[in-house]
Amino acid sequence: MKDSLEKANDELKRVDHLIYVSLKYTRTCDIFKSILERMISSIEFMLDALLINLQEQNKIEEIPQQPIAKSNIAKEHYDDEVIREMAGLLVRLRQINRAPFERAREFRRHVTMTVKLESEIIEINIDNITEYYKKIKDYYAYVNKMFGEEE
Asked: Distance between CA atoms of 70 and 80, rounded to whole angstroms?
């Protein structure tokens, strides 16, 4: 469990660097894709920690490999709005990451990655990807606090 939280923290450090350093100098959608992948893996590591906790309490037998299955088990066993929101964000970010996208204004401050999902069009830019990052950092602090770990 502690190992999974450390891995999640390491991924968040990489996201931090990508947002505040790499994106500053290389404003491309490729950086957005890399940020999304790191954010997804950090949430997966947090879910792993939650599921390892459930496994240690003998509430589940095994931890599935698929991220969607992990999020469903977490939603099912944790009656906590923050955990549900985190699991929902994982699904959402995976949809965004896998969907086809268009590039706009690359190498400019307002670089935009436009993603087309079935029901909506989502524009990813520096401001909203930073919001996602801050939200995931809050999730990390919350999960860390659940297990009594210090950041």
From this structure: 15
Distance CA 112, CA 106 (A): 7
* Joined tokens for residue 70: 């992990």
Q: Report pTM.
A: 0.93
Pick from 125, 127, 51, 124: nearest CA to 86: 51
Per-domain residue ranges for the chain?
A: 2-146
pLDDT string in tens for the chain (151-residue length): 889 999 999 999 999 999 999 999 999 999 999 999 999 999 999 999 999 999 999 999 999 999 999 999 999 999 999 999 999 999 999 999 999 999 999 999 899 999 999 889 999 999 999 999 999 999 999 999 998 765 4
Length of the chain: 151
Q: Which residues share a beta bridge with 112?
A: 104
